[in-house]
Structure formats: C-alpha cells, structure tokens
Recover the amino acids of this structure.
DNA sequence: TCCGACTCATACGTCATGGTATGAATTCTG
DNA sequence: CAGAATTCATACCATGACGTATGAGTCGGA
C-alpha cells in the first residue's frame, strides 16, 4: 500500500515523500522547536513529532535529535529543511501567480475578436474594464470567427467577440448578443448601382463579389444571403481583412457586403448602399459554458455584457429583432455562481 | 479540524496545502493525462482525480478541465504545475544533499581534534579513510579538549580525538582509547635538571611551569600530576599551542610537561626528560552515544578504531595499562546497529 | 450511425493518519 | 536540592483518505 515508484531519479522519490512535510520542515527550521512549530502550523504537537520522525525515516537519518529539553536539527535535517524552505517559496510564488491569474482584480483574460472589432469596440471595452480593475491583464487575439470559436472551445481563449454568435445548439459554448451592425453593399462610385437608395439581395446575382475567406462571419452571412435570394455568389476575390476588401472594391474589382466604414468613405470613390430589406449582423460575446470560469473572466464577461452598449456608440442597439436570448437557460450570466 | 494558519503570507498557506500534491502535479504536467499520471505515480486513478479536484479547490479554480475524453491543464493549472515541478526539483536537490551527507561513501564527517594531532595522526587517518571512500568529505576543527568535547555534545562535531578521553560517567558521550603518548619534562638545556635521566613529579614543585590554558588536556594532566605530588604548580605562562609552549621553554622562561617533540629537539637548546614513574596521556576517540550516528560517521569511527594503530606509528600502542574499555557496554562500536 | 474502447468522475467499505490524553525526561526556580 | 514547569514522545480512538467497483461521457471504427 505504500506506493512510491515515481520518476527515474531516486532522489525525486524521496522528494515526493518529503513533500507533505514542507510546511512542517519550514516551521521547524524557523522555530527550532517542536511545540512552537506546531502552534505556528496550527496542528497539535504530537503530529509534528510523528511526522518529523517519519520524514527522518524516509531520509534515512533522523532530522532532529533531542537537545536538552528541546530538539535541534541534524546536519541532514538542516539540508532538507533548507531545501523545504526554498521549495515552499517556489511553490508560494506559483500560488501567487495562479491567484493573480484568476483574481478579478488582477487576473488575465484572453480575449479573441474579429479584426474589425479591434478598431474601437475592443479598445473601449479594455479601457473601461481597466478603469475598474487597473491591474487586470489582457491577452488579445484576433482572427476569423470560426477560428476564434474553435480556439475558445479548445480553451486557448477565455472570451470571444464574434458575429454572428454561435447557434445555441452547441452546449459547450454560451453566448449573448451585444450589438448590431448594419451591413451595406460597398461598391465603386462608378458602379451602375452606386446611385441607388437600396439594393435587394437578388440584384447582386450577376455581380463579381469580393468577400472574406471561408470561416469569417461576413462570408457566412454573404453566402446565406445569396442562398436565400436563390443564386450562387460569383466570388472574384477573397481576403482576410475588411480593409483589404474595401481596397479591392475601391479598385473596381467587385462589390462587397461590409459594415459601414467608420469614417464615411470618399463618395467620389466608394458608395455604401443599404440592403432592402436591411441586413444586420449581430455581434455576440461567447464563453465556455461547460467549465467554471475564473473570477477574472467572469467579471470581465459581466462587465462587457453590462457596459458594452455605452462603450460602443457606433454600434446599433440590439433592437427588437434578433431572437430571444441566445444564452442557455442554465448558464445565464448571473446564476451560475451557485454551489 | 482543518487547520491552516501558517505564515503571514496567504500564498504560503495555499503553498503548504498544495505541497502534498507536488508529485501529482508534476506527473500531470508531464503526462497531461490522469490515468497515465496515476500509473506513473503508482497510485490508483481515482486518487489522482480526487486530489486534483481538491488541489483545484484550494487554489480557487479547477486546475484541469475535461477536454475531449481527456483533460487539459487550465492556465492556473499550468502555473501551479510548473511551480510544483520547480519545487520538486529543489526538494530533490535537498534530498540528494542530505543523502550524500549521510552516505558512508560520500558523507561528511566533522572531525574535531587537538592542535597537536593535526601534525600526523589526523592527516594519516583522513588519507587512509579517503583511500577507501574517495568521495568522503571531512570538515576539520581544531581546539582545546574541553571545547572539542563541548562542541561534540552540542552536535557541532561528529567525532573528536582528544586526550585524555572523557570519563565514562557521562552517558551522552562514548569514547574508545586509541593510543598512548609519553609526556616528558621539557626544559632548557641550561636548566639544572637537564642532565637527569628521569625526573619525579615532586621535583617540579619549585619550578616555573609553562602550560596550556585551562581546558586543554595537557593542562589538566599537569594540574593533576602536581596535585598528586602534593604541591600547587607555579604557572609562569599559559599558551594555546604546544609549539608556543616549547618556544617559551627554549627561551628559558620555565619548564613544561609535553609530548616528545617529533623531530627530536636540538640537545643544545632543549632537553626532554622522562618522568619517573613515566607519564602517559591516552588519546581517545569520542562520539555521541545518545543518538544514532549517520552511516558516514559510523563508518569513519569504525575505520579509525580499527586502523589507527597502523596509521599512527609514532604513537605508543595502548599497552596493558590504561583501564578497561571506556566504551559503555550498550554502545560498543559493533552492536548499536540493532533495531 | 452505432458499437466498442477508453478516460475520467462518483459511491461505498476499509484502513491509515491525525487528534486527545498521558507519560518520560530535562531544565529552571525557590 | 527538590518541586514545578516545560518539552517531546507514546497510546488509544475517531475521522478522513485511499482502494475497489461502477457509471457517465467521448472518440475512433465498422
């Protein structure tokens, strides 16, 4: 019943058996006194006596010897007690790191988001959150929607901002909508449709389209829109950045379905025409539903859910449209902290 | 019942509670796999599951989360597991040091001895022992007899060579005689007694004596010799080194009771006259009887007891005289390894 | 798509560890 | 010098942890 195979190094084995006594050894080292060490640790004195003897047994020689009516450490005892103190320091540093990692005040949040959101939404959110928690740390990762969701599920990311949010079917991911963004047909000023007030989806059937690559939310929306209108889109170019797409459109290489350009574009070069009926994409915040989030991540999530309307003025409020809450019932933001 | 007051630093507290899981965390870190870690540690798999959960509880967040049909470490888990691996390395290094300290092949022996014995006896013993155990390490400490015995009892020294050995009355110290050394009256060549064949103790009554300070064995023997002869010695000078004493004698400042000079002195300067009856001092090896000696110390002690006659040719064999064994019965060199 | 292999978590019974009470040894004090 | 106080070790008993058996969930293959 006394398992002790561990690693190749025999000293690692005794180290593993010494490990439970780390605090005890450190206390003995500090006090040179069994009773004192016991009350320092908050354990009864006989426990210290026994475990000291047991530790000495595993080392192969007593760690303390009677000295008067007290005890003193043997040389071997000094060596292991010193090592224990060092090991405890190392471990405490690790505990501190871990604590800071999860503490809402100082914890880290790995936030993934779409390239386009890095312009204003994410900076606002980060700045707002750090006003409340100045020591909070962020790791920011940008990428395509599907990549973000995949890395979120894989645990690499804590929170992601994507559009559209994942369907509620997946029990591993939870999501909540944050804001809407109107998508408009972006086309060269010279294009025949450039003067229109609105454009219907079907009117894009014959156009060369410039889109993001598969995996991006905008691409998915574009594809679905075309499918709903009953035609297969003719993709002229694919890119990874909306700015690239916009550049291609400006160069006259096609038309694109994009969010409105934030400083409105030069009307002499590019026109942005709303769709009819209008098309929106919903930006949602996602997190892993299955596991318990760290306090830091939870605090950040709740902050984003509560404050994003105020912090992202250039986005539209959710409005009446977009569906009932996408948040699975059992995992609503406020009620998972039970137990 | 769940004690956990420890040190001021709260992180030290969680470190102490993390300590028993060091090996487990290291194994998880290495394998990223509960079952694999369990068989690496040689413990059943449920134990690993439970203790991982418990460790996560103390840290405040799970250290592993389900990932497919396996698990993966959370960020906090990585931090504490890394720290655990480092701590285990530190602890293993300490265990190695302690092992080397007590191992007969590489262990350390702190050997105390009288200044005079550093000339040939101790170097011979050390050299001889290291021929058998090349990695053995010695720390050599020189000093007066009483100081040596006191520091031996205090645990600072492992073995001491002193003359005379301590009386068998003290149960804390054990001793065994090693060799005898004749003490002779050392006096200036110009002294009236310089031509004598032998000198009786009583004849020193009127002389200026040069001795070592109190606490040295030679001083004690000198004092007792004078007391036995019925006079109080007239101490002209006290020193700490026999060579100093010899110098004072050469300078004509008194006579002294000293071991024979090892290269015989210049007869034109100093005479060495045996006492009548002859006086010897017994050099003994002492160790602590109460505690269990480390294998290294025990091996060295047994080596010295067995080999010193051959290694110290300039000393006299024990001869018939010096008392029955001074070794307490229960602690004879060979039979304490019971239990 | 269903089955099988595999991995991790939970349930229950046993045993080792820890807590309480007490004893042996030593030092300090009157 | 003797009693008292202190300190560490041992004995007994209860609680919590471990080990065994089993279940829930997930991935690869037919």
């Amino acid at each position: 019943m006394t398992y002790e195979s561990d690693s190749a190094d025999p000293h690692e084995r005794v180290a593993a058996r010494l490990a439970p006594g780390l605090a005890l050894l450190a206390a003995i080292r500090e006090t040179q006194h069994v009773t004192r060490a016991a009350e320092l640790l908050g354990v009864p004195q006989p426990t210290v006596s026994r475990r000291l003897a047991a530790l000495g047994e595993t080392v192969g020689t007593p760690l303390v010897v009677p000295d008067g009516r007290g005890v003193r450490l043997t040389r071997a005892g000094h060596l292991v007690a010193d090592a224990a103190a060092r090991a405890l320091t190392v471990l405490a540093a690790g505990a501190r790191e871990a604590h800071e990692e999860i503490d809402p005040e100082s914890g880290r949040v790995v936030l993934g988001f779409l390239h386009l959101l890095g312009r204003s939404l994410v900076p606002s959110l980060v700045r707002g959150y750090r006003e409340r928690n100045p020591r909070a740390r962020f790791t920011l990762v940008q990428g395509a929607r599907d990549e973000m969701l995949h890395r979120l599920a894989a645990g690499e990311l804590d929170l992601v901002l994507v559009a559209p949010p994942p369907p509620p079917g997946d029990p591993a991911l939870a999501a909540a909508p944050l804001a809407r963004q109107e998508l408009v047909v972006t086309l060269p000023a010279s294009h025949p449709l450039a003067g229109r007030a609105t454009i219907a989806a079907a009117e894009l059937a014959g156009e060369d389209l410039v889109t993001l690559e598969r995996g991006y939310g905008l691409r998915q929306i574009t594809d679905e829109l075309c499918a709903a209108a009953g035609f297969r889109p003719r993709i002229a170019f694919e890119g990874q950045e909306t700015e690239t797409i916009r550049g291609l459109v400006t160069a006259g290489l096609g038309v694109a379905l994009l969010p409105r350009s934030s400083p409105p574009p030069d009307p002499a070069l590019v026109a942005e025409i709303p769709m009819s009926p209008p098309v929106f994409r919903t930006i949602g915040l996602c997190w892993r539903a299955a596991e318990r989030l760290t306090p830091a991540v939870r605090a950040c999530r709740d902050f984003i859910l509560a404050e994003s309307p105020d912090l992202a003025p250039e986005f539209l409020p959710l409005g009446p449209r977009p569906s009932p809450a996408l948040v699975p019932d059992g995992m609503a933001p406020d009620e998972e902290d039970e137990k």
In short: Residues 1-7, 320-339 of chain A have pLDDT under 50 and may be disordered. Chain A has three domains: 10-101, 108-179+282-330, 182-280. Strands of chain A lie at 64-67, 70-73, 108-113, 137-142, 159-162, 173-188, 208-212, 234-239, 256-259, 270-288.
